Amino acid sequence: MPSAASPSQDTSTDHSPAFSALIRTASQEQHTEAENSSFMSEMLGGRLGLEAYTRYTEQLWFVYGALEGAADDLAPDPVAGPFVRGELLRLPALEKDLTHLHGSADWREHVAPLPATAAYAARVAEVARSWPGGYVAHHYTRYLGDLSGGQIIRGTAEKTWGFARKGDGVRFYVFDAIGNPAAFKREYRALLDALPCDDLEKRRIVEECRHAFALNTAVFQELGAHFRLSA
Ligand code: HEM
Question: What's the pTM?
Answer without folding.
Answer: 0.92
